[in-house]
Design brief:
Helix content: 25-40%
Radius of gyration: 20 Å
CATH topology of the largest domain: Double-stranded beta-helix
CATH architecture of the largest domain: 4-Layer Sandwich
Strand content: 25-35%
Number of helices: 10
Number of domains: 2
Structural class: alpha+beta
CATH superfamily of the largest domain: Clavaminate synthase-like
Strand order of the largest sheet: 1-2-3-16-7-19
Largest sheet: 6 strands, mixed
């Protein structure tokens, strides 16, 4: 099936009890749905119009539900019910997120002074969430937007020689656990048992090396792009910019280099065959993300549903007490035939 914005119309929502629109500041990403009458329950509406919502998400990549809760914060329990209705099953929290309650998390902790770069959530893992749900409990005083980028446009508009090279070679994510700055493997894996870590690495198609000093280095090779599981559209889908040294700010990179060799940095990134990724490639990809991103200002009570394959997301710097809730749903492995078919560039 192929479904895109070209075949999608806002008129599809006429008579459904919601008003559909696009934010002038962000173009077609995200689609905005607002209740036509006060008191409409989001869970009830989505349950009655699930097929329409799925088609809209396929077309637009992200849907912003605005005004269903007025200016009221949802709270974790109500958010979890909404998340279960939109992207069940939800993934369990991991040590790099803070659990609020149940399977509700906060965003990854990251300095408010810096931009968290665009990424497709957990795309370095064998199993990743196909849908993400965010809810705004408290917007930042300034900044703090969640920029979105259409992954289909990224794939289409990348320089062809770069795109084709990445498609053929894939991406290797290298992680050093328990180094000077890396999280200890015991915390990330939730166990002190090396045999359990080795079993889980094997299950997740991750190579591992035990290093001196009870340190662990892992390597995982993943695709750089995949066809969308429902629409078949090719999407740029990886998390290179959180791993490659060229994505670091100059000051951060120099500071790390002053205390350890590059191969011992907490994270690193190469092509899947282990050959280095040219920094020129990294700069081109980052520039295209920046050119394509769309942003909107959060309001208290907003709920944002994102297709993790169709849209990458980021986080802008901010001031104030920004609070969001996060749910990661519909776990999908790379091994799914619907995801992995025709990965070679020659099949495009």
């Amino acid at each position: 099936m192929s479904f895109s914005l070209r075949s999608f119309s806002l008129r599809s929502f006429e008579g459904t009890g919601v008003e559909a629109s696009f934010l002038a500041s962000s173009g077609a990403l995200p689609l905005v749905l607002a209740p036509a009458a006060v008191g409409m329950q989001l869970v009830s509406w989505t349950g009655d119009h699930r097929a329409l919502l799925d088609d809209a998400l396929d077309a637009c990549g992200a849907v912003l539900f605005r005004g269903f809760h007025g200016e009221e914060a949802l709270g974790a329990e109500r958010f979890e019910r909404i998340a279960e209705s939109l992207c069940s099953p939800l993934l369990a929290s991991n040590p790099e997120h803070v659990t609020v309650t149940g399977r509700v998390q906060t965003p990854v902790a990251y300095s408010a002074k810096h931009k968290l770069l665009w990424h497709n959530e957990n795309s370095f893992n064998r199993v990743w969430p196909r849908k993400l749900l965010f809810a705004c409990e408290e917007p930042a005083d300034a900044g703090g937007e969640t920029p979105l980028v259409d992954s289909r446009r990224m794939f289409r508009e990348l320089r062809p020689d770069i795109r084709d090279t990445w498609l053929h070679r894939g991406v290797m994510y290298v992680r050093n656990f328990g180094s000077a700055l890396g999280l200890p493997w015991q915390q990330v894996f939730g166990t002190n048992d090396r045999a359990e870590v080795e079993r889980r690495c094997a299950d997740d198609q991750v190579d591992f090396t035990w290093m001196p000093g009870d340190l662990l280095r892992t390597r995982a090779v993943r695709p750089a792009a995949i066809p969308h599981p429902r629409t078949g559209e090719w999407c740029w889908f990886n998390q290179m910019q959180h791993w490659h040294v060229a994505s670091l700010g100059a000051e951060t990179r120099a500071s790390l280099a002053s205390i350890m060799p590059e191969e011992e940095f907490p994270r690193g990134c190469t092509f899947g065959d282990g050959s280095p990724i040219p920094e020129e490639h990294v700069h081109h990809i980052l520039a295209l993300y920046a050119a394509l991103e769309a942003s909107f200002a959060w309001r208290r009570g907003d709920v944002l549903l994102v297709d993790n394959v169709l849209a990458a997301h980021a986080r802008n710097p901010y001031t104030g007490q920004r609070r969001l809730l996060v749910g990661l749903g519909e776990p999908t492995p790379y091994s799914d035939a619907s995801v992995m078919d025709e990965m070679e560039v020659g099949a495009l």
